[in-house]
Request: fold
Amino acid sequence: MKTQVAIIGSGPAGMMLAQLLARHGIESVVLERQTREHVLSRIRAGVLETTTVELLREIGVAERMEREGHAHDGVRLAFAGRESFFVDTVKTVGKRFVVYGQIEIQKDLYAAAEARGQLLIDRVEAVALHDFDAAPGRRPSVSYLRDGVRERIDCDFIAGCDGFHGVSRRAMPPGVGRKYEKVYPFGWLGVLARVPHLPDVTYVNHPRGFALASYRADRLSRYYIQVPLEDRVEDWPDERFWPELKARFPEDLAVRIVEGPSIEKSIAPLRSYVHEPMQYGRLFLCGDAAHIVPPTGAKGLNLAASDVAYLGRALVRHYRDGDDRALAAYSDTALRRVWSSVRTSWSLTNLLHRFPHFTPFDQKAQEVELDFLMRSPHALAALAEQYAGMPLEPLP
Ligand code: APR
Ligand code: PHB
Reply:
């Protein structure tokens, strides 16, 4: 089999890239190791920066998001049990963000792929990448097993959109590039419940630990509390979770939290990870395959989208104009935005969580910084700009 771009992974990055390329008549094949049902079963945040909303519009999969997504003019912060304050991203940087579950984006991408006849091969095994070092005379290919039969796809480029645990990043020659990693000493317990949500996405710093209120739909709330890494889901029955969540919110918001039976409960560790470079020869990494951010800044999906915007547009320049400058600069261009989001997520994680080594001084220092944020329009604007998302750079 031959194609122009072999895409490994049918998560948001892989499917957004396939959609963008198809809009420009560029052929791709998507390889996915899971079933479609498994991919759609993942509970993931959907806080969409303006650039992500614009990309979804550009590639023609924004119609349902525009109809069912919830636009927000900002995000709410609370600390020290006091009243919360609103970080107005519209008043400060003229940007709003949209809450629309990642599962819904995945459904929209799958529907668009089906409508255009996208070749998406799922349940593949033993995916391997070959000859992507761009040496003269060598053409990249991807091989895989499906139902016990080994297949091969000859291509011009390989897009590694296979997430943190995928094969693409690991296919780079040993010693190529550098890894940056930070593991945080706590996790997030996430709960999904069919109850009305608070009006704003709300982050809370409390001496008992971090908490977050978000949602997926009008009657589908998503709450998180920081828990020790050793905690298990079984340690947190609903009758323990809800009082703990409310204890961390200021009174005026706690009284508005509606309890209900959890329909999903999970604990996720927090980590930052960046692989540099994000390309090698004719292999290009997109999304979680290249970087992971703690969920504190809701940047994961948005970084996948910005990587796709940069790589997709660079590939269009290659095929349409024979111009490879943007392709050659992809890793540097994408990494500038990746590191900006990694720093934002790191900064918010440090500002809002209670670390094991904390003394009363450390807790007080966080509260003083949050108080400064609340009172300084300049500090608030800087946070608003980072949370709402920096603009994409023009391609070289
Ligand atoms: N072969 C084929 N497919 C693979 C392989 C492999 N060897 N390894 C992983 N995959 C698939 C996974 O099954 C998954 O469907 O690649 C896909 C990667 O999708 P994601 O992990 O969702 O990564 P990405 O598309 O970059 O999206 C990032 O998802 O994880 C969240 O918080 C993250 O919101 C962000 C977004
Ligand atoms: C979510 O809705 O799951 C969510 C929202 C904001 C975050 C993280 C997760 O920072």
